[in-house]
Structures are given as structure tokens and as C-alpha cells.
Amino acid sequence: MRRGRTPPATATERRLAAVWREVLRVASVCREDDFFELGGDSLLVLQVFARLDDRAGPLPRPTVIYRHRTLAALAEAVDAAAADPGPAGAAAAPPAADGVRDGVEEEVRDAVGDGAEGPFPVTPGQRGFLLAEALSPGGGTWLARLRLTGPLDPGLFQRAVDLLVERHGMLRTVFPAGARPPVQQELPRSLRLPVDFEKAAGPAEVDAHAAAEAERRLEPWAWPLLRLRVLTLAPHDHVLLVHAHHLIGDGYSSALLIRELTETYDRLAGGAAPATPGPRSRFRDHALARAGSGTGAPATVERVARAARLSAPYRPPVLRTAADGDAGFGSVEFTLDAEVTAALRTVASRAGTTLYAPLLTAYYQELAAVTGSPDLVVGLAVSGRDQALPDAHLVFGPFATAVPVRPAGAADEPLTDGEFTDALRRVAAEAEEARAHEDVVLPRHADGLPMTSQFFFTHLDFAALAPRGDGALRVSWEDGDSTFLPPSSATDLFLAVRPAGGGLRVTVRGSAAAFSPDALDDFARAVRGRLVRAAESPRIVVSPPPRRRRETMDAALVGYLPAPAHLARLAGMPESALPRAEVRELLFPDGRPRLLETVRTPLGRSGFVCVPLFADELGRGNGLVEHTARAVSLAASLGARCVSLAGMIPSLTGYGFDVLRHRQYPAAVTTGHAATVVSVVKTVHAALEATGRDLAELEVAFAGLGSIGASSLELLLSLAARPPRRLLLCDVRGSAPRLAELGRRLRERGLAGEVEIAEAQRMLPDAVHRADLLVTAVSGATAVLDVDRLRPGAVVVDDSFPHCFDTGRALARMRERGDVLVLGGGLLHVGRTHREAAADLPAAAAAGHLAQPWIDGTLASCRAESLLRAADARLPLVHGLVDAAVARAHWNAV
């Protein structure tokens, strides 16, 4: 036992240790050992879980190992799944084969029927291949070339193929034309797949045969969707061409097929009985499970945060022009020798990851450099077999899928600028996060394609499936490379890596519409250069990630969380997906305010300090003043010279006076209302200028005449050359006397002519909807303004929280009819901004927070006010209502 290590202590740890020793071929395993540092990879993960029996209870999904990498941690996760199979870890068992689960759509159920061997639904991945086939017929196949060394008996080889066709249903599957929804059908087990046996005079003739085979169409509706050709160069030298459609099998399946084919051939050649137990599951079980119960994964905070992070605004770089069309693909290859590969493996191991990660990192870094975009999404191919489907690792089928790797979405600096080892850690951590949540539903681009489609990476290391090498036939990859095709015609760049002897063979394929031959060659050369440089110093000890300094800031905003239902809607999840107590425990384990993020701006650095309350919990009886006071003190301790208050906090704390009376602060406190008033008026000015309107010619309605509304009205009118043609003031029931007095003062000062007063009931009155310009600042209400009732040409500037109208309807009317302009009024343009999650924020919370909607270059006006005051101490603080002098001072400052 290694020094300083402890042996397995529990029954589960001992059972796991035995499996690890067998799979990883190590002499001993300790509780602290990391599976991946011992040489594990994603395919060996499948073997570990295949060797674990479920006599002690249900097993978690294999992806659990990406979050529980040590023996002790994984054993604890296995025990937890056995004790409570319902939550995150455990996956649903496959359905019975006699039909589809109740969750399948009715039309799919009708198509599938009840027969055990009837048609069954296609998976989402297969739907994508069917769509690609419809758009680009014949483009969804792969062609592998393998060298077979040894005596080959055609009759025995054909018999081995027949046994595999009987064993694997997907080798007998077709996709009936015209079926809606699409289905797949296994054909009888008695089918015989004929192998073509031919002689070839030399490599040139092999190339010609391979090129001709690649041109052959494999129609989804016609069997077979797999073709095998054996080209004999000499009695003991053969080339096997395997041509198959992605609809029936993936890269893992090809390696599995070759291993089982050679092992079955060896048994037949040796006179042994060929019959071996088949896998306990079929691909149809996987398809039925997907159709019947979705992914089966519960909506945990981590999954929701992952979904929210991936849903954050993303602008894929445009590398093609509309005229480029489908111009095919170019290809460049290079080889990393055994010495460089060994050095990269050392670099990866010291960073706590495996060999694929340095290649993915170099690929990502060069993509960022070429596109000029620090935030990119790369599709990472994964086996897709990480579910509790018995013997999934032994099933031929198209399980493979792509998960999105987006390491720079919340990073401090672009990956192109950092040290390779730092970038490697970030990429590896993001890839592990993606693998752990591979069943999260992916957002799609505007063209309907998945976000993983533009850039793609796959590591074709199937060493775990390699034949033993001591049989009658020995297998190796043919020197003439196999054809690796990108997942769709929309892919701009595709990088595939596979072992080549002791080194690696790297294939870079690029769309001719996005990369010229020279540009593709330059890209491949640059990726290779990054890898060689990373490999030159593998002996340098990789230090742990540097501790981030305690955040310092110039100013801060104290706010609160949106209501859980609102957070769930932002993440595209059901309203029940984010349990209030779980979110609060995750973010505020001690019940105190905490820093969530900082934003760098040209004005300085601003922090967001959040109180442990949700928007629907605000009120005087829940400790709001005390929480706000603690938050102000925390912000001041982090360097904030001025702190502003967000949303409803000012009005619920006596416009800030209650907070000021609670204690003394080293930082100044302001409500943020003055800058908000300025932003509302500036937005009105911008809207009128954009639409060519003159305030003096308009009927203007102000709805909600509280602190923001009344002050915005006065500032707008005082800056106008002439008053509006007609002014309508509207507020809640019982406000008429106050509004009448406000109107009288405005008329006396010459700021308004005709003034009409209205009180709102459940909805804003018709008179408001008939106005040319509507300025709304309504607190706590939603959908009091009906955008469908607005007159054509109307302009709405809204500072309500949440918005006082249905935002979906507003966007739809602007998009479909284009006759109204509806704007938010609470943002100010401050120049380039950069958001950073707080260093101690849990990863799931950081991802979810940074994924909330954000317009680059802008800042909430209330937040900008504290930055303005921190930059210029002469700017008046705001407590109470915003008077004309204070509004003017902030107008001039902005």
C-alpha cells in the first residue's frame, strides 16, 4: 500500500477496488485514488459499471464518476443510489419490450404498436441524421478501412458475420419511408448479410475500391445499411472496408463490431462453439426508454444551472457568406509521434484529466484565435451509453451524441491569452461538467441546428475494445485513412483524433465555404504547434489553480433574487424545477447576504450583493432592512465607496432612510432612483429620435406616478422645448386627488397644457392605450398593459419590475406587424463590460447567475448611480424622492 494512503474501508469500496484493479490493470487501489489519474477514460467507465452487479441495489448513472472521481467518493455515490434510487444519480430501467411507455406521444404509440418485434421510435440523434439525409442525400455514412493480417477463410468469415447480424438488431434495421412520425424496424434474425470478397493488386487498387464504395448510396429505407468488403492483397494480407450509415451505428459500434467479428472468427477457426450469450439489452430498449420517459433525469439545481448557462446569449462566429452554399469539405492530417503523445499524456495526468483534453484545449484555443471570439461552443462526441441499460457497452447502435463544451462563457480571460495548463484545466472541467449533464436539453441556433453543430471534436480511442491480438486474424487501422465525416453540412470545422501506433493521428476537416485550403492547412499547423509546445515541458509541476484574490470594487448594488418561478422560466424549466429552499441553501448556507458577481466597466468595478430573499418575499416583516444593512456593510468591506439599492428595496425601506438609520456605514448609500429617472428620459429621447416624432405633437400617458414615474415626468417636461399636445396621468384607485395636484403644479410652471387624470382598475384604461407615447413605472403588477390594444405607431418605455405587459406578445407584435416600439427604460450604456462570478460561488450557482439575460455594454441604471457617485463624490446622494435639482445633476453626469 502506498505511503500516506488508506485501504478500502467499506464493502462497496472493496467491490469497486477489485473492479478498478481489473479494468485499470493496477496492483492496488486506495480510497484516495482518482480513477482518471490511474489511467481511466470514458470507455473504461462503461466497463467498470458493467462489472458492478446490482445485488446491493440500483446503480447510479456512469456519469456520476465525473463528479465522484476517487474510490471513496464513488463508493459513497453508489451507496446513496442504492439507498434512495429516486434522486439525481439513478437512471430509469429500460422498458419492457412489449410496447412503449405511457409517456410516448399518441401518434408514436400508434406507429409502434404492441408487438415485441414491431416498429419502434427513432431517437433524437437519429431524427437529426434523417433530416441530414433529406437535405443532403448520401451524406450520413462512414467508411472504415482496417488491415487484417493472417489466413482468412471466406466461409468462416461469412459465418461470423451472419452470427453478428443475428446478435445485433441494428444490423438488421431499416427506416420505413413515409412513416410519420419516423420509426425503425428490425428485420428477421434469419437475414444473411453477404460479404464481398475480391482481390486487389496493390494499394492503388485498394484506394480505387474504397473510393467506389464511398460513392455507393445507403438508403435508410433499404436493407442493408452496412456493407462489408474484403480485399485480399496476399494470402495473409487483407483490407476490410466497413461502410455503414450513422443511423444504425456509431464509432464505438464499429470498434465493437470488429472486436466481436474477429473473436467470433477465431472461435470458429479453432473449432469452438460460436454461441455466446448476447447482451441483455438492445438498442430498441434505449429508443423506447428515450421516447417513453425523456431523459429520466430529475431537475436538480445543478442541471437547471447547466441548462441556464448553455441558454445564455451566444453569438456563433459567421465564417460563411450566404452565397457560399454547400461547397464540400477539405481535409488536413498530421501525426504526433510517440514521444510527444507520451508528454501530452503526462501534462493531462498532472492536470487531473486524460489525453483527449490537451487536444481539445489546443483546438479550442486556435478556434478562438482564428474567429476572434473568446466564447465558443464546441461539440464533444461522447459514447451516449452512460445510462443504466444492461450491457449497453455490448450493444451495436447509434448511441453517440455531442455535448456542448463552452469553457469561456463565464471565464475571467479568453483561453487564447492564458497559459496552456490553465486553459487545460478549464476545458477539462467544462468537459466533465458537460459529460455529467449530457442529458440536458440543448438550445438551438436560429436556423434550428443544435449549438454543437458548428465546431466538432471527437477522440476515437477504442483501445478498450481492441481485439486481443493473438488470434488467427490481427487487426490494425489501414494506412489509407478511414473517412471521418462531420455531423452535418452546417459544420465549419471538425477535428478527429485516433491512436496511430504509440502516437496520435489528427484529422482536421473544414467546410470549403468557411476555410480555404491554405487557411485549413494553417489552422492544422497552428494546432499542432500548440500541442508540441505544451509537450516540451511536461516535467514542470502543474500547480493548483491560483487562489483568486478577494474581490475589490468601487461601488455595489444591493438586490435580491427573482422569484423561483421566474428563475425557472429564464432557464426554460417548469416552475417547480427550482425548489425555493434548495436554492436558498445553495446560495446562502449561513443565511447572510453574499457577493454574487462583479462587473468591470470604464467607470470602475461594480459588485452585486444579494440579500437572502426572493422577489416575492419582500416586505417589512421579513428582515429586509436588517439584510440590506448587512449587505451594505459587506459591500463596504470589499472596497465599495458607494452602494445603491435595487428594485423594490428603496420603496420598502422608506426610500433608503430606514437603512441609513439602522447603522453607520463607511460607504455612501443612494437609492439609485436618480440615474433610473435619467435612463427613462434618455430612452424616451432615443425612441422619439429613432421614430422621427416630436413630443409636442403627441398624446403622452404616464402610468405609475411613484418616485420614478413622477420624477421622470418632471425631467422629461423640463427638458422639452414645448409641452406635449395632451398629457394623461394614471395611477392606482384613489390616486386622483394626488394626480390632480401634480397636474396643477405642472400647468402653473408651464410644463404642461391639457392634463387628464385616470385611475386604473385591473387593467390600464382605454385612454392610456390610445396614447402615442406611454411611460410606465408600475410596481408589483404584470400584464396591466395590453400591447394588442396599442394604437399603431405607439411607443412604450417601461421601467416596471417585472414588465407591466406580456413580453412575448410585445415581441410578437413588433416582429409580425412592426407598428409599435416597446422598450425597457432601466439600462444605461456604459461602454465595454465584463462579468465575473464571485470566487466562492458554487459552480452551479455561478453558471445559472451568469446565464441570466444580459446586454453587453449596459448596466442597470440604479447600479450605474453608485458607480457615478464613487467616481465623483460631488454628485448628490438620493434618499427619498428625486427632486429637479438632483435629477438635473445626474442628467449632466450621465
Offer a few descriptive terms.
single chain, 894 residues, alpha/beta, Non-ribosomal Peptide Synthetase Peptidyl Carrier Protein, Chain A, Chloramphenicol Acetyltransferase, 5 domains, six-stranded mixed sheet, 27 helices, 17% strand
Please describe what this structure looks like.
This protein is α/β, with parallel strands linked by helices. It contains 27 helices and 28 strands. The strands form 6 sheets. It has a 6-stranded mixed beta sheet, covered by helices on one side. Strands 19-18-15-17-16-27 form a 6-stranded mixed beta sheet, sandwiched between helices. The model is unreliable at 86-116 and 539-550 (pLDDT under 50). InterPro entries: ACP-like_sf (IPR036736), CAT-like_dom_sf (IPR023213), Condensation_dom (IPR001242), NAD(P)-bd_dom_sf (IPR036291), PKS_PP-bd (IPR020806), PP-bd_ACP (IPR009081). One of its GO terms (cellular component) is cytosol. This is Condensation domain-containing protein.
Task: Put the structure in a nutshell.
The chain has 894 residues and is α/β, with parallel strands linked by helices.
